[in-house]
UniProtKB/TrEMBL annotation:
Start and end residues of each VWFA domain: 5-194
Top-level taxon: Bacteria
Source organism of the structure: Streptomyces lichenis
Protein name, entry field: VWA domain-containing protein
């Protein structure tokens, strides 16, 4: 079977406390339901949730969505540190892909939805990001959709992304909107994806993400 590993990587810094983290937690059941209720999509998707601030941890190891009943909640604390998240994500993807292949599956290029509300405070995050997203360094380099809310810097968000990037433009529209939109896009993409692919991280799976999300600006990755 062809499997898509999907990682939601969310900032858990202190600045996310309150409405920021609450709206993401409210959206997680919607994201789960949107993907898991379609049998075709649930069979092809494996989901993991990573939370990060000063440290990073895998809150939900890669799992079959059809076997999950709920997703864990994120909590806010610490300061924004990207490097730890990117290093953990790289190690996690490598381990997960190896396990899936050992089970006899073919693996689509992993997809990452990265959400943050601030600027990183660590100095080595760009090197850690390069190790994650550059194919010559990491053969399982994922497609990254980066999403910035509140005080997130557009230039930083665009540097994190290699597929799509969005920045919040209207504080009245919660991050839950973007998560719902992304879940719908991911579901449509899996349903409509090509049936053939290269075994080593090929692009047989054609991810399609809407250019416009209500309340958010789509960043031009070529210009930033």
């Amino acid at each position: 079977m062809q499997i898509l590993p999907f990682y939601l990587v969310c900032d858990e810094s202190g600045s996310m406390a309150g409405q920021g983290i609450d709206t993401v937690n409210e959206a997680l059941p919607t994201l789960y339901e949107e993907i898991s209720t379609n049998p075709t999509v649930a069979d092809k998707t494996r989901f993991a949730l990573i939370g990060f601030s000063t440290a990073a941890s895998v809150l939900q190891p890669l799992a079959d969505l059809s076997e999950l009943s709920h997703l864990p909640s994120l909590s806010a604390g610490g300061i924004t540190s990207f490097g730890s998240a990117f290093r953990l994500l790289r190690d996690t993807i490598e381990k997960d892909v190896a396990a899936l292949k050992a089970e006899g599956h073919e693996v689509y290029r992993p997809v990452v939805f990265f959400l943050s509300d601030g600027e990183p405070t660590d100095n080595d995050w760009e090197e850690a990001l390069a190790d994650l997203k550059e194919a010559e360094r990491f053969r399982y380099a994922p497609k990254i959709i980066a999403f910035g809310i509140t005080d997130a810097d557009a230039a930083i968000i665009s540097r994190v992304a290699n597929f799509k990037a969005f920045i919040q433009k209207d504080d009245s529209i919660s991050p839950a909107v973007a998560l719902r939109e992304f879940a719908s896009s991911l579901t449509r993409s899996i349903v409509n994806s090509a049936t053939s692919m290269a075994a080593e991280g090929g692009d047989g799976f054609q991810l399609q993400v809407d250019e416009q999300v209500p309340g958010y600006t789509s960043l031009n990755l070529d210009k930033l």
